[in-house]
Every structure is written in C-alpha cells, then in structure tokens.
Design goal:
208 residues; alpha+beta; Nuclear Transport Factor 2, Chain: A; six-stranded mixed beta sheet; 5 helices; 33% strand; globular
Length: 208
C-alpha cells in the first residue's frame, strides 16, 4: 500500500468504522437497531463524512435533551433558557412563551409558587425521567420527541407517577451549537386528573 492516497483512504475508513462501532457498542435495544438501519441506509447514498456528522449531531442533541432535565430539576433557569434559540418557543398549557426572558420569568414564577405550596411540609424525594427518545437530523435543523415522567414520594413513603407526557421538539443549529427552536409539552398523564388537565398540579417537578 505505497500509494499515499490509498493509504489515507484506508486509514480514514478504518477510523470511521471504529467510531461507528463504538457508537453502536454504547447503544442498546431499539436505539441500536436504529443506528444499524441508519448505517446500512447511508451506504446507499451518504458519504462516511455525512454519516459521522449525523451521528455527532444526534449525540449532541441527546445530550441537550438530557441537560434540559437536569436544569429543570435544579431550577437553574439562567442556564435552562440557554438551551433555547434566541427566539425559541416553549408551548405549554398556558400558551406559547417566546424568547429567553419570557421563558425564564414563567419558569421562575412557577417554581416559586410550588416552593410556597410545599412550605411546612416534610422534604420528599422526587425524580425527573426522560425516555423513548427519537431524533431526526436534517442538515442544520432537527426534530425530536421524548417522554418525560415525574416521580414523587407520597406520605407513606411510596413512589408514584405524578405526571408524564411528550416533548415534541424542533431544533436548530445556532452559532455552531444545537438549540431548541420550539418545544411543545404534551401532557397525557397527571396525578389527580380524570381528563386532560387545564393546569398541572403542584406535585409535579416544575410542570415542564
């Protein structure tokens, strides 16, 4: 293999293959099947560079979705809003919030109301979960959907689902980083509600 171009191509392809294999090794179940199908489909039309870029984009978006849940739980609203594009929108039961200031104000106010409602009550455990994540990248835009589930501790020490639903997202690449362009919060389970709620109750994490 004395030809420098052939040698470079061989080495690049080998490295790319190792990276794809590592991605699959870190993925299990349905997601692994999706990656396998994606790689197979890419062989028909996408270059190795394009496939690697798509893998990186999806990985970054999944990390953003995970960061969202962490910041939601910690009530860090300044960093929370940085996950949205400058003109990003949050579509919730009260209406559509547009821009960092509107989103930050609403989340801070909801958090304060919930803290006041819990005053004088024992500290109880809770957890915010994200599952069923699906991401589709198309150049500098992407769509995603995922299920959020809030768990809370009852007075008897048992845990229950206090709320659950779907995040439906449109994302955009802004200044080289993925941001949420629009997030629609679709509740379908809420403790104490017999039908679709008008407003989430105060047992949920922060409602969104």
């Amino acid at each position: 293999m004395n030809n420098p171009l052939r040698k470079w191509t061989f080495e690049y392809t080998t490295i790319a293959g190792l990276m794809l294999t590592a991605q699959l090794a870190c993925t299990s179940g349905a997601n692994a099947a999706q990656w396998t199908a994606f790689i197979a489909a890419g062989a028909e039309g996408l270059s190795i560079e394009a496939r690697l870029q798509a893998l990186q984009d999806e990985s970054e978006i999944r990390r953003l979705l995970d960061d969202y849940m962490g910041l939601l739980g910690s009530r860090d609203w300044d960093n929370y809003v940085e996950l949205f594009a400058q003109d990003g929108e949050l579509d919730i039961v009260e209406g559509v919030l547009k821009g960092h200031d509107a989103i930050r104000t609403r989340m801070a106010n909801a958090s304060a109301r919930m803290a006041n409602a819990r005053q004088g009550q024992p500290q109880r455990q809770s957890a915010d979960l994200l599952s069923n994540i699906y991401v589709k990248v198309d150049g500098d835009t992407a769509t995603a959907r995922s299920r959020f589930t809030f768990l809370g501790e009852d007075a008897d020490g048992r845990f229950r689902v206090t709320g659950s639903g779907m995040y439906l997202d449109t994302l955009t690449r802004e200044d080289g980083r993925w941001k949420i362009k629009r997030r629609s919060v679709q509740w379908d389970l809420l403790a104490g509600a017999a039908s679709t709620p008008a407003t989430p109750n105060t047992t949920t994490s922060t409602t969104n």
